[in-house]
Amino acid sequence: MTAYVFIAEALFFAFVVLIFMGALLAVHARLLMHAVLGLAVCLLGVAGIYFYLGSIFLTMMQILIYVGAICILMVFGVMVGYTPQEIAESNLKGKNRFLALGAAFSGFVLLLTALLRATFRPAAETVGDFSLPWLGETLLYRYCLAFELISVVLLAAIIGAIILATGGRETEKC
Amino acid sequence: MLSVSTSLTTYLVIALVLFVMGIYGMVRHRSFMGMLISTELILCGASINFMAFNRFVLADPATGQVFTLFIMGIAAAEAAIVVSFILAVYRTYRTDDPSAVQDLRH
What we know:
The structure holds 2 protein chains of 2 kinds. By secondary structure, chain A is an all-alpha fold.
């Protein structure tokens, strides 16, 4: 039994290392393509964290939506929108590294002190469980309006993306 | 015995570090695509927070999962909009530097 717990903890640390290495690559890579790759690795690690937090469905959704869809979209954006030289140089232009370090460090200290001071108590009695039927029931009964609204938002985003990417109304006249 | 993966503070610290790295990248990058990548990191930190509180504090374990699903939907819509916006800006200005995009009508 102890061996299984040890393996589980080791895997957890592996996922955490995956997250941090991926995020480091995403913010520090010279090539934009490498940054997108680092983001994909980071999101894969976050999927592992969701698994440890008890939701297999969210793990699968994270891999499908984030790693599978959003990262591919970014790769398309990088490959279509930039010349090869700009892909290489685009991230090197940053000169405000100290400003970024200051903002990140002050935010980290501020939030960490607030986090370590707070106490969280678990709820007295629990309703439902982590199963998929209960999640679907909550999604489609209690949060039905938000569910419908987010589909409208997605539709508007798709139409807006098409109009923006094809150049708007003027292209039809020319 | 190790029990790091069963404490709330661990997940909150992971989410905090991810969020702070997103802010760092957002300030440091000088390209729209890099800022979009940093935004995704920030959103992921927020999602981990929701899932951690959902697992350890909340009474109903479906609420946090629903919120995380909504965050994923919003992130997908935002990524689609921003990528097409980058294409439009690049077609007009021939650059990806946010400080070069200054006039409302080109």
